[in-house]
Amino acid sequence: MSDEEKLDIFDDNEGEQPVDAVNDQAFDDQQVDELLDLNLDDAEFDDLELEKYVEGNDDKPSKRIQKKRKSSSGGNNVEAKQQKPRSSKKEEERLKNELEIKEEVKKIKSEMKQIHQRDIKAVENKKPALNKIKHIDEIISKLSKLGVQREFVQDKGIDYLADWLDKIPNGPEPSVTLRKKLLQFIFELNVTRSNLTGIRLGKVIYKISSKSEVKELRILANKVVEKWSKIINSRDKKYDDEDQYEYGD
């Protein structure tokens, strides 16, 4: 077999073109090295640009070609950024808000406990227990924020309401004004079945609904009893959903 026949066996005209020529113009070693130094292996060279460069009519591939490479590379970066998970800024803000609410509820509960203790001391010293009535509007205002109210209920704050609504041992009945404001606030509370399980507040309210000498207090207490009885006995799943609340004002 002649050398020309051997060459025909490996030369497939329908396949890829030889890589050692462009427009019948070959690269010499120096030009190849220069191209490698330019680090433009991913650039999209067109025939005219390469021909100018090979023939020595152009110092280096034009900026237009280099921009192609940068554009291609930049596109990949954009795609990578799009695939990268977004920063959870909203989630961070939500968690921060939750922590602030928890801290606020903690302070409110501590304040309610201290006020209750001062009234107990007043009774022990044979003095009027006036601390709760002085602070009831302030406490209700703080607890009226929906996010705060939710956390207060979930964090056993109802027990503190029972202390405020109930009679202090060896002391007189709390003032009608105090009980009226507390019962109105309690009626508006968003509660679930789990919030009402085993709480002392229910017993205190039921006692008022059946034994209070003040008709207005009996009516208010009965409204709470009816509402809570419906929640406890209802099969509606919404009363099991502790996520029915939203954080916020």
Please give a structural write-up:
By secondary structure, the protein is mostly helical. It folds into 2 domains: 17-83, no CATH class; 97-244, Up-down Bundle (Transcription Elongation Factor S-II, Chain A). It has helices spanning 3-10, 29-38, 47-54, 63-83, 89-124, 131-143, 146-154, 158-165, 176-188, 200-211, 215-233, and strands at residues 21-22, 25-26. It has a two-stranded antiparallel ribbon with strand order 1-2. A hairpin with a 2-residue loop joins strand 1 (21-22) and strand 2. The longest helix is centred in the middle third of the chain and has 36 residues, at 89-124. The termini are far apart. Residues 3-25, 40-45, 63-72 and 243-249 have low confidence and may be disordered.
Please give the structural blueprint:
Layout: H1 3-10, E1 21-22, E2 25-26, H2 29-38, H3 47-54, H4 63-83, H5 89-124, H6 131-143, H7 146-154, H8 158-165, H9 176-188, H10 200-211, H11 215-233
Antiparallel strand pairs: 1-2
Helix pairs in contact: 5-6, 5-7, 6-9, 8-10, 9-11, 10-11
Keywords: Nucleus
Biased composition (Basic and acidic residues): 53-62
Pfam family, one: Med26
